[in-house]
Amino acid sequence: MTAPALRLRQISKRYGATTALDRVDLEVYPGEVLGLVGDNGAGKSTLLQVASGAHRPTAGELCVQGRPVAFGSPRAAAAAGIHMVYQDLALVPTQDVGTNLYLGDEPLRGGPLRYLGVLDKRRMRREADQALARLGVRLGPTSRPVELLSAGQRQVVALARAAVRVMAAGHGVLLLDEPTAALGPEQSRQVRQLITRLAGQGVAVVVVTHDLPLCFAVTHRVAVLHRGRKVADLPTAETDLDAVVGWITGARPHQP
Amino acid sequence: MTAALLFARDRGIVVLWGLLILLMWALGGSSFASYDNAVLILNAAAVTAVFAAGIAIGALAGVLDLSIPGTAALAGVVCARQLVDGRGAVAGIAAGLAVGVLAGLVNGLLAERGLNPLVVTIGTLSVSSGLALVVTGGLPVSGFTDLEFLGTGRPLDIPAPVYVMLAVYATGWLCLTQTRLGLRLTAVGGNAEAARRCGVPSSRYRVIGFAGAGLCAALGGILTAATVAQADAVVSTGVLFDALTAVALGGVALSGGRGSLPRVLVGALVVATIANGLLIRDVPPYWTTVATGALLIAAIAADRALSVALTRRTLEVPR
Q1: Which residues of B touch A105 (CB under 8 A)?
Q2: What does the pLDDT average to over A79-104?
Q3: Which residues form the signal peptide (chain B) (predicted)?
Q4: Are strands A18-28 and A6-15 parallel, antiparallel or unpaired?
Q5: Closest CA–CA distance from residue A236 to any residue of chain B (Å)
Q6: Of A35, A66, A199, A234, which has the highest C-beta tally within 10 A?
Q7: Is A80 helix (H, G, I), strand (E, B) or coil?
């Protein structure tokens, strides 16, 4: 049995008197898609913020590939292979697709040009094309500025950017916050396919969503949060929409 | 349709310049369309273009530097002071350029402390023009000949400032399009928060943007001093308006992240061509000032109209 790509053990997060998360255990394995659902205020966002290094938990422990870690910042989490894809996308609209994929990690030319910081644009474009092809993503030329892409295509670029970094490291976890919010049906389908394909490449994916059809379409396992506590965590195939809605609203008792 | 909008946004300025040349040719005849007059336009555009490069580099990084005339005046008089004191052209130019970079760093570090960048640069505009007066004691600095090669020299029968202008644009263009520095600078201008999340230290690059603007401003100030063989502490805001117009005509988004230096160069040539054509037609020069201002507003209006039209086309969810 491989170690979980990411494991949260007895995580609690309190803001003053409010308990946003109460002793939550969660784990996601390489190649697995975990759906994280719950009502507004159930603690989904807080959980993502803790996992992505934006906030420190009040109590509990995070483990990456079996090793305990503590993240001081999102950058530290990214260095450990935990990548958050933000809801507001955070792309540079005026730059092309290739640049957005490699910004912060740009390939440079060899030799003395390296010291001048001269970019290897051809390599950047080629690697971008290869990475997108491996993800089965078709966006047209990677030299297109992101501002000329549709909302769905931008979401795909944002996902691909995190995926490229995860695949370069050979392992990692993607945290997706509402990946299909504000997308049309066709575009959601593209994003769904991309998530499935990423998992097929061994990436662990956590999807936070209100979109239950999406959750049932792409996840292997689903965890439900209710008022800061995990009330259910089971294989998607062993449950159904009614049961999950019941756990989300609190109408159904805690999973045994 | 999208392609037509993109063409208008990215190539429109070149078309506009072509039409303008035809118009001025029709109005001014052979006194406009001559080699000598073309050289005159290039020379007139040179100083404006160098200032415009500074504003454009700042704008690409998402910062708008209005202190450029003050930095230019201070750099010009500091350089002239060195020359009058007999330290030679190299020391003079180096001192002037250092003043420019320093002014840019001050602007940048203040703006990155969360102060409103526009107001900061207006403040430093006042500070640097005051300092320029302190250096000169209120009288123009003259009596130096070391800068003739930069100002009135004419290698190959083309005025030296034109070479300086071309060198600035070639270097700037290479830096912005071929290096990591340029890529990150424009990325930070496009979306500083996104760049930061990718591990790019955004505020450092914005400070670099200010420093680049200061460097170009200082070079423009030295060039001005070289062409008239005299450095004056009097700040000319006219150059700021001309340069800003050239930048806007060149399609540089003043909100940051988008634009290209070669187009800014064409923008500066448009401004110079209009001034030249009006002069040839004996229109009083005041009208040139009016035309430049109107052009600035027209340029940002056109850029906005095109951007809105483009966004509308791309953000529509296809059904």
Answers
A1: 198-199
A2: 81
A3: none
A4: antiparallel
A5: 31
A6: A35
A7: coil
Query: What per-residue confidence (pLDDT) applies to B172?
Result: 93
Give first-to-last CA distance, chain A, whole Å.
24
CA–CA dist B121, B67 (Å, integer): 5
Cα separation, B214 vs B232, whole angstroms: 18
Residue B134, H or E segment: helix B117-136
In our burial notation (b when 16+ CB lie closer than 10 A, e otherwise), range B115-146 reads eebeebbebbbeebbebbbebbeeeebeebeb
- Exposure of B254 by Cβ count < 10 A (0-12 exposed, 13-18 middle, 19+ buried)? middle
Cα of B45 to nearest chain A Cα, Å: 29
Question: So what's the pLDDT on residue B38?
Answer: 83
Check B197 against A148: CB less than 8 A apart: no
- Among residues B264, B283, B263, the alpha carbon closest in space to that of B274 is found at B283
The torsion angles phi and psi of A35, rounded to 5 degrees, stand at -90, 135
**What is the arithmetic mean of pLDDT over A130-134?**
81
Chain B residues in contact with A141 (beta carbon < 8 A):
none
| Cross-chain residue pair A94–B200, CB shorter than 8 Å | no
Interface contact flag, B178 A119, Cβ < 8 Å: yes
CB contact under 8 A, B183 and A103: yes
Q: pTM of the predicted model, to two decimals?
A: 0.81
Q: Is the pLDDT of residue A180 over 90?
A: no
Residue B317 confidence (pLDDT): 45
Angstrom CA distances, A86 to A36, A144, B239, B242, stand at 15, 22, 43, 41
Contact criterion met (CB below 8 Å) for B226 and B218: no
Give CA–CA dist B72/B106, Å, rounded: 15
Q: CB neighbours (10 Å) of residue A256?
A: 4
Are B318 and A93 a contacting pair at CB < 8 A? no
The helix/strand/coil state of B205 is helix
User: Choosing among B184, B314, B315, B319, which should be mutated to test the A contact, i.e. which has the most A CBs within 10 A?
Assistant: B314
Q: What is the mean pLDDT of each run of 10 residues along chain B (319 residues)?
A: 73 77 75 79 89 93 90 92 84 90 92 87 90 86 78 82 93 91 90 81 91 94 87 80 87 83 90 82 80 82 79 57
CB contact under 8 A, A148 and B178: no
Say yes or no for a CB contact (<8 Å) between A86 and B197: yes
Say yes or no to pLDDT of A230 above 80.
Answer: yes
CA distance B216 to chain A (A): 20
Size of interface A-B (CB pairs under 8 A): 85
Among B183, B184, B194, beta carbon nearest to A90: B194
The whole-number pLDDT of residue B314 equals 64
Q: In this predicted structure, what is the pLDDT of residue A24?
A: 84
pLDDT higher than 60, residue A1 = no
Task: Return the residue of A nearest to B5 by Cα.
Answer: A148
